[in-house]
Design brief:
The complex is a heterodimer. By secondary structure, chain A is of the alpha+beta class. Chain A has eight helices and 13 strands. The longest helix of chain A has 17 residues. Classes of the chains: A alpha+beta, B alpha/beta.
């Protein structure tokens, strides 16, 4: 059991679980704080500095990023003071000088009443805001660690190792999905040709991620014939989840989930105990009558329940 | 020989004293990097050759740096039973004469700097006497070291062994109370008592921020964790300081002892020394010292028969400035990018590999043995109300004598520059000075009366930092200096947080355009606006202070910039 602490945000007393961050608590209570580098699925990073708030603790007032600061008993937090607005404006202006054509930055600038970064500032036309979401998603969630930051300071970029093909990339596309600026180019191609002096050969459907110089074949569904996911991605999931080899032959939309014939079902629970993913449970049907029920969102269509059922009630 | 009980240290001490006041002539050459740069390596070889040729019985030993960097290469001669004579600015050509003088017992007057009659131990209660029997007449013309302004105004506590003992000899370190503090802590004190002693001493971190060491240790001791770590910060990425290098090249055992005591106090059994990879010689000597300590049983399992085990590892870092920041250093130690971590949690709660960790500066850890040996109360008697103890200061820039010195905190900066640096090299007036490396501001000469004190320097817009003191004369273009340090920050920023990465880049551009003559008043107000945001928002101390150099120039030397602004548009 986690302890509860009481803190004040913008004068409002709020109870929060110990270990959560100010940003989480504020958002849960309907207080808006802008962010660029935060994502619920990832560990707090504190790179964009947009979520700064004023914190008063033990008589000291200081500015900190709310995404990284854990709640503490007796904290007084203010999310929208002149000092904070000034700070955020400068952060936005700096971003705007770097990436004047990125939509999300333009929106933010509009919100804070900035039309242009100060004209004394130098200007660039970058698209990457270096929030690190792609890098962190790749290492923390996908656990592939295919891309990293390279360089430091002003020369920092997100890149594949040594600016060569990212060999650990499984082309899952999570990086492109989390990228707030849309600079990561992920294309699914119906078919390309691999050309050599001997002639051209079609490669079949492929996915390319241009930024990491990666091309991977897409798995084609044996049933409907549509390409649906890159091969290495499925291979990784297969290994992690210990799935049978032929598991990904069929795409999710063509996959057949078990159907239970309730007239035949004995309610013995054998299927439930043998289900590797906990997708089967017994539902009470009144009295001592119990019937198996399939939760398709957990089901991987592995057919083990079908094999286990003593009365062939599952098909 | 292995040291199994604290009493065994006495044997080491006896052997060490024999080495330091020998029965045959002992010639030492200062072969720290500063000496080697001036040709001490050649002199060492030449001495070896010459001693053989002239058939003089003598041991030639390489030692570290005693701070007199301007007088390198330094050679010291101890003839049996005679005072120790220090020669400075020795050239290879002089070696023949030097060895001849050992034979005859004469003194080379052109080279001699000073003499030592005895070597005081750390406790100050006993001393190693060099002079046995009658004092030789020819030596009276040489000044005793304590009569020299350079030594008289110093308080050599932490650096007491530097330049005297061989860094490659554990015995010589033992001769001057070496490892006695560790023995005292292990046998007579509980870990809590050690922490209390450090708290009583009011020692503050020597790395820059000046956080009380006792508080840090206590937090780590109380934190929950399967394992705890001690980390010594020898990253030292500042452009003008080589103090840690010099220290490790001169007296590596002091760090080992300090870290072992810290480990005992907080309950850590493993320590890491994060060393700047540019310090090759320091690495060699430190690793040698660790091996020697392990062989002697001063590191490893059940040290001196107690239940305390401690092991040390050296990790080499690339020397990035940001890795001097403790959380970035931990990242680098773990093998990833050196980027500052969000705080809290502080390293004392969750540091290296997620375990409670104490990260201390090398100088902080080197002070610990003395505090244990002489007591925290004694230590707190030195210095000012808020800053206790001594500080090693590295003087560089335009000074007549480049050197490092150890002075009690509270010494005025003017005093340091005048006594040890002897003013500027070209005789020009001092215009500005900078303390604490790039993060410190550049202060004008009228503030030279400031004292070495954490709070006083902070108030003036600078910081004590790691103890660099850079002197600039009246010809220095302050805008140029500000640009230099801003470039440094733009280069050394890790690039994680947007304020620092983008801010330093833009500051660099703005300064460049002012220097090119395109500057307007709007440029200045933008600098001020950006500096305020960086101070508030940046993730770590590097980003927070990245605008300090230009801000201090704007504050103290406004005319230098205003003169370069466009007055009207053409």
């Amino acid at each position: 059991m986690k302890l509860m602490v009481t803190l004040k945000i913008n004068g409002k007393k709020i109870k929060a679980k110990e270990g959560t961050t100010i940003l989480e608590v504020a958002r849960a209570n309907g207080i808006e704080i802008p962010t660029l580098c935060s994502n619920d699925a990832l560990r707090p990073y504190g790179a964009c500095r947009l979520c700064i708030v004023e914190i008063r603790k033990n008589g000291n007032t200081f500015v900190e990023t709310s995404c990284t600061y854990p709640v503490e008993e007796g904290l007084e937090v203010k999310t929208f003071t002149p000092r904070i607005v000034e700070g955020r404006k400068m952060v936005i202006e700096l971003h705007l000088a770097r990436c004047p054509n990125v939509k999300i930055i333009k929106h933010l600038a509009e919100e804070y009443g900035i039309t242009e970064s100060a004209k004394e500032m130098g200007k660039e036309n970058e698209y990457c805001i270096l929030c690190g979401l792609c890098v962190r998603a790749c290492s923390e969630v996908v656990k592939a660690g295919a891309i990293q930051f390279a360089g430091k300071g002003a020369n920092k970029v997100v890149d594949s190792p040594f600016n060569q093909t990212a060999e650990d990339c499984i082309a899952c596309g999570s990086c492109a999905f989390v990228c707030p600026t849309g600079i990561i180019e992920k294309n699914d191609l119906a078919s390309t040709s691999l050309c050599s002096p001997e002639g051209c050969e079609p490669t079949g459907p492929q996915r390319e991620i241009i930024n990491w110089k990666v091309e991977h074949k897409l798995q084609v569904c044996k049933k409907c014939g549509n390409p649906y996911a890159p091969g290495p991605h499925l291979e990784k999931v297969k290994q992690e989840q210990n799935l049978p080899n032929e598991f990904f032959d069929i795409c999710p939309s063509c996959r057949q989930y078990p159907v239970i014939d309730e007239d035949k079902c004995l309610g013995c629970g054998g299927c439930m105990e043998n289900c590797p993913c906990g997708a089967l449970e017994l539902d009470d049907k009144g009295g001592y009558d119990k019937k198996a029920h399939v939760y398709t969102e957990n089901c991987t269509a592995c057919h083990s329940c079908e094999l286990m059922c003593p009365v062939q009630a599952i098909s | 020989m292995k040291i199994k009980r604290p009493e065994d240290l006495k044997k080491i001490k006896r052997e060490g004293i024999k080495l330091l006041s020998p029965t045959i002539t002992r010639i030492t050459v200062g072969t720290a990097t500063c000496g080697l740069a001036k040709g001490a390596g050649k002199i060492y070889e030449a001495l070896k050759y010459e001693v053989k040729r002239q058939k003089v019985k003598a041991d030639i030993i390489s030692v570290g740096c005693n701070g007199l960097c301007y007088a390198e290469p330094i050679v010291e001669v101890i003839r049996a039973g005679k005072p120790r004579i220090t020669y400075g600015r020795v050239s290879v050509e002089m070696v023949v004469e030097l060895v001849k003088s050992i034979k005859t017992g004469a003194i080379i007057k052109e080279l001699v700097l000073m003499r030592h009659d005895e070597e005081k131990s750390a406790l100050g209660t006993e001393s190693i006497k060099y002079t046995k029997g009658k004092f030789p007449k020819s030596y009276t013309s040489v000044k005793e070291y304590r009569r020299l302004a350079f030594y008289r105004n110093q308080m050599r506590l932490v650096s007491r062994n530097a330049g005297t003992i061989s860094p490659e000899s554990l015995e010589e370190y033992g001769a001057l109370n070496g490892y006695e503090s560790l023995a005292k802590a292990l046998t007579t004190m509980s870990p809590e008592e050690v922490i209390k002693e450090v708290s009583v001493s009011k020692l503050r971190g020597r790395g820059g921020a000046g956080f009380p060491t006792g508080v840090k240790w206590e937090a780590c001791r109380k934190a929950d964790g399967d394992k705890k770590y001690i980390v010594c910060n020898c990253s030292e990425g500042d452009p003008e300081i080589g103090m840690h290098r010099s220290f490790l090249e001169s007296d590596p055992h002091l760090i080992i002892e300090g870290m072992a005591i810290a480990g005992y106090a907080v309950g850590a059994e493993e320590g890491y020394i994060y060393l700047n990879d540019r310090y090759q010689l320091a690495l060699e000597r430190l690793e040698g010292a660790i091996k020697r300590a392990e062989r002697m049983g001063l590191l490893g399992r059940k040290i001196m028969g107690s239940d305390f085990s401690f092991s040390l590892k050296v990790k080499r870092g690339g020397g990035a400035y940001v890795c001097g920041e403790e959380t970035a250093l931990l990242d680098a130690l773990e093998g990833s990018f050196g980027e500052p971590r969000p705080r809290p949690p502080f390293p004392a709660e969750k540091g290296l590999f997620g375990e409670p960790t104490v990260v201390n500066n090398l100088e902080t850890l080197a002070t610990i043995p003395l505090i244990i040996l002489k007591g925290g109360k004694w230590f707190s008697g030195i210095g000012t109300a808020s800053s206790k103890g001594t500080k090693i200061v590295a003087l560089s820039g335009n000074v007549a004598q480049t050197c490092w010195v150890e002075v009690p905190l509270g010494t005025s900066i003017k005093n340091i520059i005048d006594t040890f640096g002897k003013g500027t090299a070209n005789g020009k007036k001092i215009k500005a000075f900078q303390t604490g490396g790039p993060s410190g501001g550049m202060l004008p000469a009228k503030l030279l009366q400031l004292r070495l004190d954490y709070d006083q320097l902070n108030k003036a817009g600078s910081l004590l930092g790691s103890g660099g003191l850079l002197v600039m004369d009246e010809d220095t273009d302050m805008l140029d200096m500000a640009k230099f340090f801003t470039d440094f920050f733009a280069d050394e920023s890790c690039g994680k947080c947007s304020t620092c990465r983008e801010g330093t880049k833009r500051l660099q551009e703005i300064l460049a355009s002012i220097m090119e003559g395109h500057g307007t008043k709007e440029h200045i107000s933008l600098i001020k606006r950006m500096a305020a945001a960086m101070k508030d928002n940046a993730a770590c101390a590097l980003g927070k202070t990245a605008a300090a150099p230009i801000l201090s120039v704007l504050k103290h030397f406004p005319k230098e910039i205003e003169g370069k602004l466009l007055t009207k548009r053409t």
